[in-house]
């Protein structure tokens, strides 16, 4: 039997990503098309490609990381349709709809403050700072759900070394992009923007802290924090600021968004800790998306071996 | 117009409409469209509809008077029972899908988490109202006592809105919208009672029981 390669299939035959991503919408559309009242609007939805802004770049030659978990990854669909990104709306399904037109190119990140070499980085310059790795991390939200995501990036320490902090630098402050015109939903979020987060410098130097530019083999989708974000797997998700535009090295502990909003509920450290409950709900268990039963939450989200020593001698009940 | 509200068919239509939120959940479940976190989705949907039905039920009396449509009373019991129905679904989702009947854990939650305490209170207060919603119970209690008992819906609705307000992280817009609507509905009642009124306020008794109605 002659086994032939298929030279007749070229890239042109590949289902366009926008259509592939729209398949569920398409199938749903088919079913509903029968319902006369809705048919018109739904078909209009199908006709207008809302996801055209998806300019995903593939990353090749990614290094494997010893920090990666072998746990089952969540689906791309879950991770792109269940997001907390209050600038684009407060419902989990809002960012996937509202962030589609978000302009992420050109993009610069300003690194400033207590550093010898303050500078602005373009996205390309950031990507070239260090070899890109795939890191499969657990991600635990303060709302007691969790996911497993194959992020792409490199240790944030590579950027820190590039700008050479002065001896005064004790903390790092992150600032997310905010433009009320592109993010009109932010007005109803109940928190202040631009979104601000921060770390102590030794936390930021920990190799687990990931400067992240992609996931699932390609660049970050808008709703997941395009084009560059920080990922801190041992902390509650809100610490991992999205769509970074400013990184500032400071002498004093920087103010952070959720902490300012309710300091009794959201601490500066916000390390995952099953023994310290959120004042309004328990943190002992979590629901891994895609699983029916809840699982026990692990101290430092299971990253104690890497980070526990950073907090030696600290009362984690007080410094929640 | 009047005929529309007195027709038996209207009641059937309203009944089916009230089932639409449940049908929508069923449809989404069949089509794998309950988001990445289905249990949360169901919890939120049933909670939202409990509040909406409570507010719709509380809107009946003001609408009857303002629009001069006394026949709207025919729908009040059904709407109130649908509020209880969605509250039961909401509560079941919590004890079954969220807590897996872990009674110790549930009791800890009810005692310790104030948003659950107040939500649980809202639910418990609806139980006697659902039980005594029948024509037989109206007769047994007598109109006035029955009416007094059923004022518990005010407290239940207030507790329900507080429950929502206390559980959100920062997005208070939606719970505050419910709170504003509830405030209007309750303030209207106070205004009717205490403001000088040209006509004596009509006593708001349920219709005379003629025959058992669903």
Uncertain residue ranges of chain A: 26-53
- Rg from Cα of chain B: 18 Å
Helix content of chain A: 10-25%
Tally the beta strands of chain B.
Answer: 0
Main sheet specs of chain B: none
- Number of helical elements of chain A: 10
Outline type of chain B = globular
The separation of the N and C termini of chain B measures 23 Å
Strand content of chain A: 15-25%
Report the total helices of chain B.
11
Count of distinct strands of chain A = 13
Radius of gyration of chain A: 21 Å
Structural class of chain A: alpha+beta
Q: Which whole number gives the mean pLDDT of chain B? A: 90
Task: Give your account of this protein's structure.
- The complex is a heterodimer of chains A (320) and B (214).
- With 320 residues, chain A is an alpha+beta fold.
- Chain A has two domains: 13-47, no CATH class; 63-311, Sulfite Oxidase, Chain A, domain 2, CATH 3.90.420.
- Chain A is 20% helix and 21% strand.
- Chain A has ten helices and 13 strands.
- In chain A, strands 1, 4, 5, 8, 9, 10, 12 and 13 form an eight-stranded mixed beta sheet that branches. Chain A has a five-stranded mixed beta sheet with strand order 3-2-11-6-7.
- In chain A, strand 2 and strand 3 form a beta hairpin.
- Chain A is globular and about 45 Å long.
- With 214 residues, chain B is mostly helical.
- Chain B has a domain at 40-62 and 77-194.
- The longest helix of chain B has 29 residues, at 38-66.
- The model of chain B has no long low-confidence stretch (mean pLDDT 90).
- Chain A binds chain B through residues 24, 27-28, 31, 74, 77-79, 81-82, 86, 90, 92-93, 143, 145, 188-191, 261-262, 280-282, 287, 289-290, 293, and chain B through 31-33, 35-37, 39-40, 100, 109, 113-115, 166-173.
Secondary structure layout:
The complex is a heterodimer of chains A (320) and B (214).
Chain A: H1 17-21, H2 23-32, H3 36-47, E1 63-64, H4 76-81, H5 94-98, E2 108-113, E3 119-122, H6 123-127, E4 133-140, E5 145-155, H7 157-163, E6 171-176, E7 196-200, H8 201-205, E8 210-215, E9 218-219, E10 229-231, E11 244-250, H9 257-261, E12 285-288, E13 295-296, H10 304-307
Parallel strand pairs in A: 1-4, 2-11, 5-12
Antiparallel strand pairs in A: 2-3, 4-5, 5-8, 6-7, 6-11, 8-9, 8-10, 12-13
Chain B: H1 2-6, H2 8-18, H3 20-30, H4 38-66, H5 76-98, H6 103-112, H7 114-131, H8 135-141, H9 143-150, H10 152-167, H11 173-194
């Amino acid at each position: 039997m002659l086994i032939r390669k298929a030279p007749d299939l070229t890239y042109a035959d590949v289902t366009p990503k926008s259509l592939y991503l729209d398949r569920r919408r398409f199938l749903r559309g088919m079913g509903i098309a029968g319902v006369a009242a809705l048919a018109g609007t739904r078909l209009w939805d199908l006709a207008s490609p809302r996801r055209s802004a998806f300019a995903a770049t593939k990353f090749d030659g990614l290094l494997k990381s010893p920090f990666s978990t072998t746990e089952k990854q969540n689906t791309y669909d879950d991770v792109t349709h269940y997001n907390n990104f209050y600038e684009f709306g407060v419902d989990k399904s809002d960012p996937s709809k509202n962030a589609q037109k978000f302009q992420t190119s050109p993009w610069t990140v300003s690194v400033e403050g207590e550093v010898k070499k303050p500078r602005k980085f373009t996205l390309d310059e950031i990507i070239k700072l260090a070899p890109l790795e795939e890191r499969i991390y657990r991600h635990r939200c303060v709302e007691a759900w969790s996911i497993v995501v194959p992020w792409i990036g490199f240790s944030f320490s590579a950027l820190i070394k590039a700008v050479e902090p002065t001896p005064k630098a004790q903390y790092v402050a992150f600032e997310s992009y905010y433009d009320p015109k592109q993010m009109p939903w932010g007005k109803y979020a109940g928190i202040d923007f631009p979104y601000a987060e921060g770390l102590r410098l030794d936390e930021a130097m920990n190799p687990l802290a990931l400067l992240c530019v992609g996931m699932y083999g390609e660049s970050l989708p808008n709703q997941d924090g395009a084009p560059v974000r920080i990922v801190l797997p041992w902390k509650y998700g809100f610490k991992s600021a999205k769509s970074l535009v400013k990184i500032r090295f400071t002498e004093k502990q920087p103010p952070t968004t959720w902490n300012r909003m309710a300091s009794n509920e959201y601490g500066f450290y916000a390390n995952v800790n099953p023994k310290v409950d959120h004042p309004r709900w328990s943190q002992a268990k979590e629901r891994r998306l895609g699983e029916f039963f809840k699982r026990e939450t692990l101290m430092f989200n299971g990253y104690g071996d890497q980070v526990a020593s950073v907090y030696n001698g600290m009362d984690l009940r007080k410094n929640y | 117009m009047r005929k529309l509200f007195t027709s038996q068919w209207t009641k059937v239509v309203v009944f089916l409409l009230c089932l639409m939120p449940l049908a929508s959940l069923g449809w989404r479940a069949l089509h794998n469209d309950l988001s990445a976190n289905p249990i949360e989705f169901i919890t939120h949907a049933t909670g939202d509809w409990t509040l909406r039905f409570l507010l719709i039920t509380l809107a009946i009396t003001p609408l009857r008077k303002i629009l001069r449509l006394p026949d709207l009373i025919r729908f009040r019991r059904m709407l109130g029972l649908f509020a209880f129905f969605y509250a039961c679904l909401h509560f079941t989702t919590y004890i079954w899908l969220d807590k897996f009947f872990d009674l110790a854990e549930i009791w800890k939650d009810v005692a310790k988490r104030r948003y659950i305490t107040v939500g649980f209170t809202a639910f418990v207060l609806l139980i006697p109202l659902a039980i005594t919603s029948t024509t037989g119970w109206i007769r047994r209690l007598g109109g006035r006592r029955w009416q007094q008992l059923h004022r518990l819906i005010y407290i239940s609705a207030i507790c329900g809105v507080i429950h929502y307000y206390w559980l959100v992280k920062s997005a208070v817009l939606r719970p505050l919208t419910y709170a504003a609507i509830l405030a209007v509905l309750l303030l209207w009642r106070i205004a009717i009672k205490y403001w000088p009124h040209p006509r004596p306020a009509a006593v708001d008794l349920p219709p005379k029981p003629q025959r058992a109605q669903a």
